[in-house]
Please model this.
Amino acid sequence: MNAEIQPHVLVVDDDTRLRDLLRQYLSTNGYRVTTARHAEEARERMASLTFDLVVLDVNMPGEDGISLTRSLRTTGGHGQVPILLLTARGEAEDRIAGLEAGADDYLPKPFEPRELLLRAAAVLRRTQRPPDADPVLRFGEHEFDMGRGSLSRDGAPVKLTTAETELLKLFAANARAVLSRGAIAQAGSAVAERSVDVHIARLRRKLEPDPRNPRYLKTVWGEGYVLWPD
Model:
């Protein structure tokens, strides 16, 4: 697994099969992927994670994709995130309404996965953030600037060692993904495999209200560790 920060995509679709296929396909083609089943869950993801692109289905039960697009464009925090809508083929009114609501592009269903990659790459090129706009991961009272490697709690800086900074960068770049001890050591995190547990324990003392009962940096028994934002 690579510690390099890759474009982070939020896939929002109520179709479990398509959602899982998109996650797998995008993940194997250079993207970090988080998924949501509906608009409410998408908002929960966006409250704690920063995304480079949202791939959003129009026809979802409850709040649909066009309504969510309009809401994101008119409320604070996520107004600039690029949005690629997935629309039913032949539904021209959906595509027009989506673009009017503020979507950056649309892709009619069914589609070839390769076309999704091309559309996503094109949207990212057009909407790329400035180089100094570093992604920020928020969890609880903490904010971690992934570019600068700086952690703060309620706005006050939290001092990290070099190893702790690299370890937190790795977890932040792979939020909600389980990392084995071997993967952590091989990712250039400045942590040897035999000392991973020690560094995790030290990092937890700086992240967790109760390090003995971790809320964010969790153990997945038999597999490794996972950073799980709110």
Observations:
- The mean pLDDT is 85.
- The helical segments are 16-27, 39-48, 65-74, 92-101, 113-127, 162-173, 181-186, 196-207.
- The first strand starts at residue 8 and ends at 12.
- Residues 151 and 160 are 8 Å apart (CA to CA).
